[in-house]
Design a protein that fits this description.
alpha+beta; Heat Shock Protein 90; Ribosomal Protein S5, domain 2; Rossmann fold; 9-stranded mixed sheet
Length: about 700
């Protein structure tokens, strides 16, 4: 150790400076009972709304509707209710009414107020905790309707029971009146009307399609119950939608598979209660290469699955292997089918009703009850094995699909190993003409995937070589929606892209190895460019979803027009912007002209007499000095223009690719890029009129 270091140590030992933290702590500085705040009633919800509804954006706003509807669904699951109506009123009012038992209105013994007021104003108050209220329910925490009350400027609760209409109104969660009878009725049930607080939410605007999709799903999961949606927001117009599915989740499977080629004719459906857990399962295989399994617990969608999904997958793999052995599809020396093999083309819905669900967090993304796994595994083992025996044609179609998947898996593994080996050996001279960046810092690096060699050449010359890499593609890549992994890996363009990304693919995918922070798709602004972009988006959505989820995928926005007036150059990204810039140039020229003194008084007089009829002609005359160029492709830009407009971080426009609704995105990719022609034809026909300026 140096003398300087020793001296430093000695000074530190001799120092008598008091520890500031200890002094403050000993004095109890600025920390007394006055600093202890107790948030009463529903105030915690208003202070931290995100803790209860996820966000104050559109998803959180719609979550209010789901919370109220969940109470009605709980009544339906208990067989107390068979009709629910959600109405969107003018002025951002929403009401949900059911024909269930109605929230109790009698006085609660402990709190000495009406049970209705208790439910509406206290967190964790409801019929979901004690005995006899609900056998099963979706609202685990019992905070639903009180949270809605807290986050609404106005709420009115109406209860129809015992021949009377009982009502109470609230302002931001606080009772405006007492619970009282306001009329007589022969109805029974509950109606909640609320107006979300505009001070809490970013924007109070309900999306009809979002509500439509959610309630349609709930109707599938609650068979025999009618769910209505009424939209009264447009004056003199009233839209009414009704859902009723006697088949329950079997009907759900038919809906999911409507755009797919089926494997077998029948939908497997089973319902049974095991050890207090009610299990419903519906299954049908298709010719697709992806798996779609939706798992629900007490009608709550669990995107991350959980115990019920684990039980189903374990039993499915076991049953199909046993059946394949028994029927001779798998020989004695052949390996068993893997879970991956039996899930290709699988479409399934698993729904359990359980008394005390254990979810991960308020979002309920994953179910943790071990008894759910045991129950689902038992039902799948018995019922699916019987189904295969009773439906030999369906059994053959399913097993044939699984065996083809196993062969493809083995071929894909060999192809993938070849890709990785080749990428490693070739090092920086990667296939596909990758012009890599010099930086090895993945957080700063960008990869532009460019359409064609011409645009690729301009991009290579115009880029910043320090952090921007260019990968040009030759023509249109393979449509992976119609191809297995082995065929994909035989495609040179896709193979080049996988090596460039560095993440690998399939079960070996690792997001930590991504070589670039931004993956930017840069294609022409025409039909072919849009098609290439869609093919690439399909590839990323199906095989690199984590890249999208973590915010690494972007779409470049090259300009459509270049406007030049004298030495001034402007770029427009669409027709509207071109018109706006043109008017700006016109106004500027007019202003300059007015500043110049006229050569003769007569000219002033002529200018003053310009009428509305001659104004347009005058504007055209003014625009004679403006040069407008339309870019049909990226290759028409020189490197400097491409850099300045599309690649320079200081000026460029990028669209980030996100997945807001994975299920809806999955369905759209299936329709647009899948093997079935008819659904795609219907999609195009229904949207043909909305297409503008189609450039073919």
């Amino acid at each position: 150790m140096s003398k300087k270091s020793k001296k430093g140590l000695q000074l530190k030992k001799k120092s008598t400076t008091p520890n500031v933290r200890k002094v403050k702590a000993a004095a109890g500085e600025q920390y007394t009972a006055k600093q202890i705040t107790v948030l009463e009633g529903l105030e915690p919800v208003r202070r931290r709304p995100g803790m209860y509804i996820g966000s104050t954006g559109a998803s959180g706003l719609h979550h209010l509707v789901w919370e109220v509807i969940d109470n009605s669904i709980d009544e339906a699951m208990g067989d107390y209710c068979d009709e629910i109506t959600a109405t969107l009123h003018p002025g951002n009012l929403v009401s949900v009414e059911d024909n269930g038992r109605g929230i109790p209105v009698d006085i609660h013994k402990q709190y000495k107020v009406s049970a209705l007021e208790l439910v509406m104003t206290k967190l964790h108050a409801g019929g979901k905790f004690g005995e006899g209220g609900y056998k099963v329910s979706g609202g685990l925490h019992g905070v639903g309707v009180s949270v809605v009350n807290a986050l609404s400027t106005y709420l009115k609760a109406e209860v129809y029971r015992d021949g009377k209409i009982w009502a109470q109104e609230y302002i931001r969660g606080k009772p405006k009146t007492k619970v009282k009878a306001v009329g007589k009725t022969s109805k029974h049930g509950t109606k909640i009307t609320f107006e979300a607080d505009a001070e809490i939410f970013e924007k109070v605007e309900y999306n009809l399609k979002t509500i439509y999709d959610h309630l349609r799903q709930q109707a599938f999961l609650t068979k025999g119950v009618t769910i209505n949606i009424v939209d009264e927001r447009i004056k003199n117009e009233k839209s009414v939608y009704s859902f009723y599915f006697e088949g329950g989740i079997a009907s759900f499977i038919h809906s999911i598979n409507r755009a797919c080629a089926k494997r077998g004719e029948s939908v497997f459906y089973a319902q049974k209660e095991v050890s207090g857990v009610n299990v419903e399962i519906a299954v049908q295989y298709t010719d697709d290469f992806k798996e779609t399994v939706l798992a629900f617990a007490n009608n709550i969608y669990n995107p991350d699955g959980g115990m019920h999904l684990m039980g189903f997958r374990t039993a499915l793999t076991r049953v199909l292997n046993n059946y394949a052995r028994k029927q001779g599809y798998l020989k004695e020396k052949e390996d068993n089918l893997t879970g991956e093999d039996v899930r290709e083309g699988l479409n399934a819905v698993i729904s359990v009703k359980i008394k005390n669900p254990q979810f991960e967090g308020q979002t309920k993304s994953k179910l943790g009850n071990p008894e759910a796994r045991t129950a689902v595994e038992a039902v799948t083992n018995d019922a699916f094995a019987a189904f295969l025996e009773e439906h030999p044609k369906d059994g053959e179609a399913i097993i044939t699909k699984c065996i083809l998947s196993a062969k493809a898996r083995i071929a894909a593994k060999a192809a993938r190993e070849t890709v990785i080996r080749k990428g490693f050996l070739e090092g920086m001279t990667l296939p596909g003409k990758l012009a890599d960046c010099s930086s090895r810092d993945s957080d700063k690096s960008e990869l532009y995937i460019v359409e064609g060699d011409s645009a690729g050449g301009s991009a290579r010359q115009g880029r910043d070589r320090d952090f921007q890499a260019i990968l040009p593609l030759r023509g249109k890549i393979l449509n992976i929606e119609k191809s297995r992994l082995d065929k994909m890996l035989a495609n040179n363009e896709i193979k080049s892209l996988i090596i460039a990304l560095g993440t690998n693919i399939g079960e070996q995918f690792n997001i930590e190895n991504l070589r670039y922070n931004k993956i930017i798709l840069m294609t022409d602004a025409d039909v072919d460019g849009a098609h290439i972009r869609t093919l690439l988006l399909t590839l990323f959505f199906r095989h690199f979803p984590e890249i999208i989820k973590q915010g690494h995928l972007y779409i470049a926005q090259p300009p459509l027009y270049r406007l030049q007036h004298g030495k001034e150059i402007l770029y427009a990204y669409n027709d509207e912007e071109k018109e706006k810039l043109t008017k700006q140039i016109t106004a500027k020229k007019e202003a300059v002209a007015k500043l110049k003194p006229p050569k003769q008084a007569k000219k002033k007089k002529v200018e003053a007499e310009i009428t509305a009829e001659t104004a347009e002609a005058a504007e055209v005359e003014i625009l004679k000095g403006v040069s407008i160029q339309r870019y049909k492709g990226l290759g028409e830009m020189n490197p400097e223009q491409l850099w300045e407009t599309t690649m320079n971080p200081a000026n460029r426009l990028l669209k980030i690719v996100t997945i807001e609704d994975a299920k809806a995105a999955d369905e759209i990719f299936d329709i647009l890029m899948g093997t079935e022609v008819e659904p795609r034809k219907r999609f195009i026909q229904t949207r043909a009129k909305s297409v503008k300026n189609l450039d073919i």
